[in-house]
Amino acid sequence: MGTTRRTLLAGGGVVAAGVAGLAGRRLWLDREPAALPAVNASGHLLWQNWAGTQHAYPATRAAPASADEAAHLLKTAQGPVRMVGAGHSFTGLVSTDATLVSLDRMTGVLGHDPVTLQASVGAGTRLYELGPALAAIGQDMPNLPDINKQSLAGGTQTGTHGTGLGFKALHGGIVAFDLATPRGEVLECSATSNPEVFNAARVGLGAFGLVTRMTMQNHALTRVKKVTSLRPRADLIDGWDDLLRHHRNVEFYVIPFSHWGQLITHDATTEPVRPRGPETDTDGTMKLKQARDVLEFATPLRFWTADNLISGMPDQIAIDHGWKLLSNERPVRFREIEYHLPRETQIPALREVIDAIERHRSDVFFPIEVRSIAADDAWLSTFHGRESGSIAVHAYYKDDYTFFYTLIEPILRRHGGRPHWGKLNSLKYDDFAALYPRWKDAMAVRDDLDPEGKLINPYLLRVLRRG
Ligand SMILES: Cc1cc2nc3c(=O)[nH]c(=O)nc-3n(C[C@H](O)[C@H](O)[C@H](O)COP(=O)(O)OP(=O)(O)OC[C@H]3O[C@@H](n4cnc5c(N)ncnc54)[C@H](O)[C@@H]3O)c2cc1C
After folding, report:
1. In angstroms, what is the span from residue 20 Cα to ligand 1's centroid?
2. What's the CA-to-centroid distance between 163 and ligand 1, angstroms?
3. What percent of the chain has pLDDT over 70?
4. Measured in angstroms, how far is the CA atom of residue 29 from the centroid of ligand 1?
5. CB 50 less than 6 A from any atom of ligand 1
6. Over the chain, what is the mean pLDDT?
7. What pLDDT does 4 receive?
8. pLDDT computed for residue 436 by the predictor
9. Which of 28-60 are b and which e, b meaning 16 or more Cβ less than 10 Å from the residue's Cβ?
10. How far is it, in rounded angstroms, from Cα 255 to Cα 102?
């Protein structure tokens, strides 16, 4: 959410005129979550995810430097053995009090083909490192998620995605990968080599083994033009199909308790570079929080205030290589639920989600994110076999988020959604089995690679085991 000086001033005036008693109530609720001990009674260091929703005290931490070392580690280590990328998943995929494995020593571009535009990459490489490394060889990732802090393996293992008609999630670009397994072997996986493992483990929740190296299909390095603008939200919702057809990458955020939304588009261009300006989303988000804090129980006034803050704000334009523009900084911590729906149910579901929030959750102020992702054929991909539209609802890290499960998730499930593997949801084995046509095949491959269940932590027990 961008802002200008004018809106900041306007916002300040409105806040000053706010109802002091209500603001006081919010101030009282606005407390940091209690800090966890940095070390537990056994002397083991705390591991915590970005959102603060998950934590553990792993007895052993390992960072193998080769695929063989990784395979030996998986075979001999105490379970549950869990892999960690950047710890940006909201769900309990990573937590273990036994063995935590990072691929931070297996990074960087290892080889590339200038004709096919494929590159072989250490699976621990962070997306923000990959951009400049690929640019040096004339390549770029076809698309990127909203942030670029994730590791390549961590991002692809949960089906991390960006947006754009015809653009698959990150794992859609995987041509091949090496997988170290708990059986102590290293499997080369592609459409022709161990194809069952390739299909089952491309999006694998770190439950099939440790991905050590990946060959990715990239694009030629080209410039894109990013335009961020504020539009009446009805235009965005009604015009979503047109927007998707007309832009390379497009998404929008509905700003709750306002009549506005933020539209972000990226399109190929040959125009000269125009570097992106300073990050303004944080400022905008905190202004929406202020409006919430003061006007939480004065809905018409909150709409009026937000509409005044937002209307008339200028577009922001930047032109540069895609890896510099497609992702953003998100310094304000939040919790998130995101479901991927069949494209035809996305907008009806979105209308219901907005209505539910504005009727029942006056504490919500984070914008609701709307994106589009192409179908792929990975067995556990949330986009398996269907073009998808996503809806994501966020809650400030100090606020209650249990309404995700009671208010939002039932709507998204009723409309045929599948939850993002890395984001909060309440589903269990039987729910997932019903959502994925190749579920049983994927489970058979998993059980074969990890017969002792060494990779299964309590969270994965709920997801991957019945009962
Ligand atoms: C601020 C924020 C913004 C986000 N924006 C988006 C977005 O725009 N789009 C989107 O789709 N998602 C988004 N996410 C979710 C995020 O992309 C995913 O949860 C992603 O999986 C996190 O990557 P990571 O590197 O942090 O992996 P982690 O969360 O550390 O791990 C994710 C999974 O990968 C496994 N894993 C890690 N390394 C390996 C390995 N080498 N081999 C095998 N398995 C491994 C882990 O065991 C775990 O199961 C966002 C999250 C945050 C916090």
Report:
1. 41
2. 16
3. 95
4. 30
5. yes
6. 94
7. 42
8. 98
9. eeeeeeeeeeeeeeeebeebbbbbbbbebbbee
10. 37
Which two tokens mark 340?
């991927």
Banded pLDDT at 20 (limits 50, 70, 90): low
- CA-to-CA distance for 422 and 155, rounded, in angstroms? 9
Residue 449 in contact with ligand 1 by CB distance below 6 A: no
Cα–Cα distance between 453 and 214 in angstroms, integer? 24
Is the pTM value of this prediction over 0.85? yes
Comparison of pLDDT for 15 and 313, the residue scoring more: 313
Q: What distance in Å separates the CA atoms of residue 159 and residue 422, rounded to the nearest whole number?
A: 8
Ligand 1 pocket member 83 (CB < 6 A): yes
**Most confidently predicted of 31-35, 309-313, 391-395:** 391-395
**Does the beta carbon of 163 sit less than 6 angstroms from any atom of ligand 1?**
no
Angle, helices 281-295 vs 20-29, to 10°: value is 120
**Residue 19 confidence (pLDDT):** 55
Domains of the chain listed by start with CATH number: 47-102 (no CATH), 109-221 (3.30.465.10), 223-419 (3.40.462.10)
Decide whether any atom of ligand 1 lies within 6 Å of the 127 Cβ. Answer: no
